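Technical annex B. To support the medicinal chemistry partners, we prepared a structural model of the target in complex with zinc ion, based solely on the information shown next.
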Amino acid sequence: MLDYHLHLWPHHEHDTPLRLEQLAEYCARAEAAGVTELALTEHLFRFRQADALLGGFWDDERVPPALAESMAGYWKFHATADLDAYVACAQEAKEAGLPVVIGLEVDYYEDRMDTVAGLLAGYPFDVLLGSVHWVGGWRFDDLDDPVSMAEWSVRDVDACWDSYTRALEELAATRSCDVLAHPDLMKVAGHVPDAPAEWWDRMAEAAASSGMAAELSSAGWRKPAGEQYPALGLLERFVACGVPLTTASDAHHLDHVAHRADDLRAVLASVGVGVLQGYRGRDPHPVVVSRSAGAGTGTVA
Ligand SMILES: [Zn+2]
Ligand SMILES: [Zn+2]
């Protein structure tokens, strides 16, 4: 079992020092839940290097002024850490024998993914998550931002899903990342089309044709969506298309590390998946879904 989506800092914190002890605590908690390997995947936009390259992407006439202002403030708050120090800390954890790999959660930046790839090529990443957290400068998943959430009352849900899916397709086509994180994140605030199948089909096709894996995440259970990412219908499509899977908590602090790992195991079992995909140096390898830590190790009586 994997926890291939972990953050070091909650969104409301910045300038929090990196600590090897924190990573050791993450590993101990994961191990207790039967999770054997962790990927550290902080948001790219938390780093000054990203701000220098990508900051201001919201200055686009298609982005409404209120959303552009909100995004500018969000970036200013978040983009304070040093990517070199983050990678060095993850490397140190790896060298100390902790079961971690070095990753990053990368957003989709329209027409700028070559720039992103150029920056990231300079680091020894094991795995890169590809995420769509905003479309057209709108942070549809930022439940704490009233300006962003107000958009849900004026936008058409099907149109939102269409924009999201198009961004996800474009991200996948760039082949700049390895794993599609929380693939149906557009449901985060609880808004789902009456007939989501057409979007699920497109998401599964985007993953399959790009060679990306997809993430099965417990984070959706902690949100208004109230279910894992992806929904069962989308997960079944990924499996049918041969898209490999990772498992993840998307924890932003220790308490959520390996969150509901047993429930993720049950979801995997329900779709007949017994092998996940791990990464080293961005090369995939199979990882057998281990038994629950509480399930014992040997013969069933
Ligand atoms: Zn995310
Ligand atoms: Zn995340």
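Notes passed to the chemistry partners:
Residues 296-301 have pLDDT under 50 and may be disordered.
Strands lie at 2-6, 37-43, 100-107, 127-131, 179-180, 213-217, 245-248, 275-280, 283-288.
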